[in-house]
Amino acid sequence: MKKYFQFEELGTNYRRETIGGLTTFLAMAYILIVNPMTLSLMDIPDLPDSMRMDYGAVFVATAVAAAIGSLLMGVLAKYPVALAPGMGLNAFFAYTVVLTMGIPWQHALGGVLISGVVFIILSISGLREIIINSIPAELKFAVSAGIGLFITFVGAQSAGLIVNDDAVLVGLGDFTDGNVLLAIFGIFITVILMTKGIKGGIFIGMVITSIIGMIFGLISVPDRVVDSIPSVAPTFGAAFEAFGDPAFFTTNMLVVVLTFLFVDFFDTAGTLVGVANQAGLMKDNKLPRAGKALLADSIATVVGAIFGTSTTTSYVESTSGVAAGARTGFASIVTACLFLLALFFFPLLEVITSAVTAPALIIVGVLMVASLGKIDWTKFEIAVPAFLTIIIMPLTYSIATGIAVGFIFYPITMIVKGRAKEIHPIMYGLFVIFILYFIFLK
After folding, report:
1. Given a cut of 60, is residue 441 above it in pLDDT?
2. Is the Transport keyword given for this protein (predicted)?
């Protein structure tokens, strides 16, 4: 095992790798709570049951996808990078595809499955790296920041911090409401933990907030801690149902699949490069075993779609494990085992409410908008498409619309500025696709 993971060459040992894997798990364990909450649309009242995914089944799918993805990343690519259903992508799945566009969640899973298969083909052929390189860096950063704002808005809305206001569209919620106050407390405690640099600050903040909620009677006290694993039957294989429905093959679904593809492209690529840099694993400014890492991500997405969850991607929280000493894929294997172990603690996680998850969403939003500083705002031809990409997402409650608007304006501003030669041909293709998106969107 030591030889396979090159412990001696990388200056690590079992203890450091185990602690690193545990740290990464604690930093991203919130996804076990947030993902089922998001995909089941629990924060949206009065929805028909047909629009909601089963909470318990999504919990299992989340843990299984995270475990398999992390295991493959560790064994194949040997990187200390953990995977799980991606934040932002799950919000797009639930709030844009299912809630706004009215697409059945079974069809949405079918879209994730298709994107995963395409990922595998692109990863094996090497085309995935070519496509990633064709998108300008400024738009990659803008998409990340825009999703961060969108996630923050979703979190604030679900906790009642922001409510509908007929006069100005949105306004502050009722700060005398117990659940709103609990969410505010959660934000304060999580911010303090993160500012202090405490590993797993988001997850610990959720635990503390939950306990306080139970003390004040705002959250139900679980009657047990460990129980049998919930059934995955309500979602397992549902993705295949979409292919037998003619309504699945629409322009809207094409846009959905492309969005899944696009966002996961840059989530994974950016995370891999960032973690590898921090761990000192980059060689000649290149990422060794990049193909295997992308393949692990692709297979995990397919497995997750089959079990019943949105796109699985690499997690930037893996940097916390690297900071704790992780240098090899053994840490990812440890994280994978912990996700499987978490399956037995479903009753403990089932009682978590929107007031508890909202702080996590808001803090993740803070982390994602850090990419704003990497955009050159002094160049107007770059600033316009980047800004529109970012701001349109929360204003229209749609990640897809933000991406579409930004990608339409980018070639326009670049051509007018006389920089047409800098535009990759693939960007022109995306320009046409997103124009068609607005023409045929109903």
Report:
1. no
2. yes
